[in-house]
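Each field is set out underneath.
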Amino acid sequence: MSRAMIPSQQKLAEKLTILNDRGQGMLTRIYNIKKMLGTTENKPAFLSDKSQEPALKYLVRRFPQIDTKSNALVPVNNIKTEVVKSLSLYYYTFVDIMDFKDHVADLLTTIDACQVYLDITMNFDLCKNYLDLVTTYVSIMILVSKVDDRKTVLALYNVAHEYLHGSGDPSFPRLGQMIIDYENPMKKMSEEFVPHSRVLVPAILSLHDIYSKKTLPAEQMRAMQVLSLLAEPQKISTVPATTTIQCEYLSQDTLERWIIFGLMLCHQYLQEAKAWDLWKTALQSGYIVQLCRDEILHIHSYIVNFFESLKGQTSMSKRVKEVNDLQHQALQTSPALHRERRKFLRTALKELTLIYTDQPGLLGPKALFVLQGLSMAQNEVHWLLRHFQNPPGRRHNVKMNQEDFVDRQIPELLFYIEELKILVKKYAQVMQRYYVAYLAGYDAVLLNQLIQNLNMCPEDESVILSSFSTSISALTVKQVEDNEMFDFRGLRLDWFRLQAYTSVNKAGLILKDHQDLAKHLNTIIFHTKMVDYLDEVLNEVSDLSIYCFYTTIFEHQFKQCMEFPAQHRFCVVFPMICGHFMNATHTLCPEERHSIGTTSVQYAHWFLKDMADEVNQVITAICEEQCLLSYKLLPKHSVQFSQKKKPGKEKKKDKDKDKEPEKPGHESARKNRENFTRMDKLHMALTELCYAINHSAVIQVWEHGFVPREFFHQQLETRFNKMFTFKDVFKDKALVGMMMYNPDTNEIAKPSELLCSVKAIMSVLQSIENYVHIDIARVFNNVLPQQTQPLDSFSGEKTITANYTNWYLEVFLRRVTCNIGQIVYSPSQKAFVSLQQDGAQVPFAAEEYADLTELKALAELIGPYGMKYMGEKLMFHIANQVQELQKLVVSNREILNQLRTSFDKPDVMRDLFRKLVNVDSVLLRMTIIGVLLSFRSLAQEALHDVLEDRVPFLMASVKDIHHFVPKSKDSMMVSELASSAGLPCSIDPILVQVLRQQKNEHTESEYDIACLLMVFVAVSIPKLARSDASFFKASVEGHLNNTHCLAKAINQLAGALFYLHGPGDTEQRLQEFLALASSSLLRLGQESEKEAVKNRESVYLLLDKIVQESPFLTMDLLESCFPYALLRNAYHSVYKHASET
C-alpha cells in the first residue's frame, strides 16, 4: 500500500533553490565545452588528427551502440590514456547534466502531483524559481544539442575507458540514449511537459499584467511619467503604491524567456487569448533570445523549425505563418522601439541621479524607482548587444537601419547605471534606517492584523507567520546606528517554504484565498532585502558582465566614446564595467575564474591607459597653442610693431601686402560667444576628460584596485618628459620656442626661447589642478630634475643638459675657435660677439646664444647639476689640450730650460727662441683653453645670478663658508661647493679633478713640465704681435683672435697645475712667468722689422689682462717688470685707433 504524499515533506523550496543554482553551473560548464570544441586551437589535438579520422567517423556512425573490438578503433587504443585524461571533464559534465535532468524531472513530477498553484503576484518566490528552473533546463538541453562533436567526445571517452579499465563507463548507455533523444530538444521536451502544463501554463499566464507594463513604448512612458520622482511632488516622500513590488524590477529579458520557452513547451495553449497576447508581444520585442552569455537563438527561425517538426499535429501550419509574420514585425519595429527606449532611459536615469545626489534621503521611500530604472536600462543594454552582434539573415528582405544599433550615447546610459549603483552603496545606511523603521513600525503592525483576520490557520503555518511578526517587530534604528549585521535569509526561506505549503491542493491554509496576506509578505521580503541583501539585488538589476563575452562591441563602444567629445566624461564607465566581469563566474566552473579575471584586468588597464593618453594629447595640444602665444610675446617680435612706415604713396598691392600684423591678445577678442575657437574646444575636451579621470578614486577589478588619477599622473609625467625631447609630441615646426635640436644641421633653439616655452607648458600643467585632484608639483619634481642629468631615466634618451652641452662644446665653441676674427669674447658685454667683416653678412649671431641672458636661461633650465655636467665636459676638452701642450713642452724641454734662466739676456733669448718649434700650436691651444674658460666663467656667472635670485639664503651661507674657510688641502672641497653655486674660485676644482685623472705619459716630473709650459707661453707671447687678428678691438674690449682669453688660461692652468704637482708655489711660478713675458715683450721695442711689431700695443695689453685676471699677481709686481707708461700708451693707441675708424 503506497503512502500518501505529504506536500510539506517534499521540500519544494529547498529543491528549487538548489537545482536552480546547479542548473546555472551546468549551463556555464556546457557553454564552455561548446566554446572549447567549437575552435580547432582549443579542442584536444587528437580530435583534429588525420590518423584518428576513420575511428572518429566510425564512432559517430555507430553511436551509441559501439563495438569496441572493431579494427577501426585500433588507433584509439594507442592514445587511450591521453583521451581519458583530456575528455574526462567533458564527459562527466554530460553525466552531471543527465543527473540534473533526472532531478528536474522528479521535482516537476512532484510539483504536478502536489497540484501546486503558481501565480507570480502571490507566491512570487515559488513561481519565479519554478519558471527559472524550466528556462534553465530548456537552455541546457538546447545547448547540449548545439555542441559540436558531442557524440565523438562521449563515444571516444567510453571506448578509451573500456580499453583502460576493461569495461565502459556505466553511465554511457543512458547518456548515449539521452543524446539521441535530444537531437531535436524542443520536440522531446514538449512531449515531456504535457503533464506539467497544468502547473506551467497558469504560472506563465500570471505574467500578463506584469509583462504588459514592461513593453510600453518610450512615448507612452514619457506620457505616464514613468520613473519620474517629480511627477507628483506631494507624494515624493511616500512609498510607491504597488502590491507586486518584487515583480516591478523583474528583467524583461527574463520574462520573455519564461514566456517564449514556456509556451513553446505548451504550444497547445496558444489558442487562449492571454497566452497568445504574451506570445505575440514577446516575439515582437526582438528576434534574438539568450541561452547563456553570448550563446543565442534566432528565436523565430528556431520556433518555425520546431513547429515544422510537429506537422502531424493540427494547426501547425497556421502557427508557422503567425511566427513568420511576428518575425517580420520584430525586424521592422523592434530596433526603433528599443532605440527610443534607450533615449528615454538616458534622461530618466540622469534625472534620478541628480535628485538622489541632492536628496539621498529619497533613496528610502523611492528605492523601487532605482531598481526599476536599473533593470530597464540593463535590459536595453543586453538587447542592444545581442542584436548588434547577431544581425538577421538577408533572406528576410527587411531593410535594417544601422543607426538603430550604433548608439553613440550608450556610454551615458552605462554611466548613469553605475552612478545610481554608487549612490545606493554610498547611502546604504540611509536605506537601512528607513526600512528597519518601516518594517517595525508599519509592516509588523499590518502583518499582525492580517494574521488575526485569518479564520483558521494550521499550527505549522501559524508558527511561521508568528515568527515573521516577532522578527520584524523587534527591529530598531539603533541596530543600524550600532552597525549591527542583519541577516533575514532565514525569514525569506521560511516564506518560500510557506508559499510551497500553502500553494498545493487541499492545503490547510490556501494562499490564493488570502491574497492580501501573500502580497504583504512579498512586500516585507522586499523591505528585508533593502536592509541586508542590497548588493545582491543591485547586481541582479544592473549586472553588465555580459560585456565580457562581447569584447569586440565593448572596444568599439569605448573607441566611439573617445571620438565623440560630448561623451568624453562618461568614458570612465568602461573600466568600471570591467569590475562586473567576475559576476559571470560560477562556483561549479572555477577553472574560468582566472581567464575572466585576467580579461577584466587587461581591459581595465587598456581603457585607463587610453583615457590618460587622450587627456595628455589634449594637454599637449593646449601646450602647443600656449607656446605659440608665448612665442609671439618674445622681445624680438616687438620690432615689427615699433617700426613706423615711411610716408609716401603706396600702390594698392603693397598696401595689401603690408597689412598690420596681428598683435598678441587678438585671439581673445570675440564678437559673440558662438565663435568656438580651437582653444575653447580643447579646454572643453580637457574638462570632460578630467571629469572622467577624477570620478573614481579607486576602481576595483577582480583582486586589483585601479587608480585612474595615478594612470593619468604617470602618463602626464612621461608626456611632459617627452616635451623636452620633442619626439612625436610637437609636430609643428613653427614652434621655435622648443629646443628642436637637429644634430644634422646643428640647429638648436635659444635657451631663453626654450625657457619661455617650458614656462608656458608648466603654467598649463599647473592649471590641471583645477580639473583633477593631482599634485602637479610632484610631476615637476619627477620630470624636471631628469633634465639636469645627461640621460633621462624614463626613456634613456638625451636630455636638455646633454643636447645643450653637446651643442655649446661641439658646435658653438668650435665655431669660435675655428673662425678666427669672426666671433670674439667680449668681457665688457659679457657675451661672445659675432663681428661683421668687409660688409659681409654674419653667418651666425653668437651673442644670441652665448650672452649672460641666454646662459641665465640655460642655468634655469638645467640647474646647478646640468651646469656642473657642462663644466666637467668642458674641462675634459681643456685636459685634452693640456696633454697636447705637455707633449710640445717635452719636445722643446732643453731649450725651455735654457730660456728659463736667461730672461735677463735678450740676445741669448732671441737666439734660443728661434730654436723653439710649434710655437704657433702652443699659442693656438692656449687660446682655445682661454676661450673655453671664458665661456665657463660666463656660465658660472649666469648660474650665480640665477641662484642668487632663487635661493638667496642658501647662497649667503655658501659665500660665508667659501670666504672664511682656512686655506689648506681640505679647502678644495669647499671650492667644489662654491663652484657648484657659480662662485669664482682662484683654483677651479673641476679643472683640478680632470687634470688629476690624466695619466702621466712622460718620464719627466709633472711639476717641471708645468714650469716649462709657463716658460713656453711667456716667451711665445711676442709672436702674437705679428698677426693681424691680434688687434685689440676697443668696442668689445678684446682681441680679434681672442688672445685676451690667454689671461684666463694662464692663471687657471697655473693655479690647477701647481696645486696638483707643486709644493704650493703658484705665486712664485707666475712671478717667473711675468718676468719672462715682460722681458720678451720689452724686446719688441727693439725690433726693427715692421711685421714683428704690427700689433705690439695690442699685445702689451695682454700683460695687463693677465695681472688683472690673476688672484696671485699684483699691479706693483707688474710695474717692477714692465713700465706702466708702455701700457698707458698702448691703451691710448688702440682706443685712438678705434675712434678714428
Notes: The mean pLDDT is 89. The longest strand covers residues 288-292.
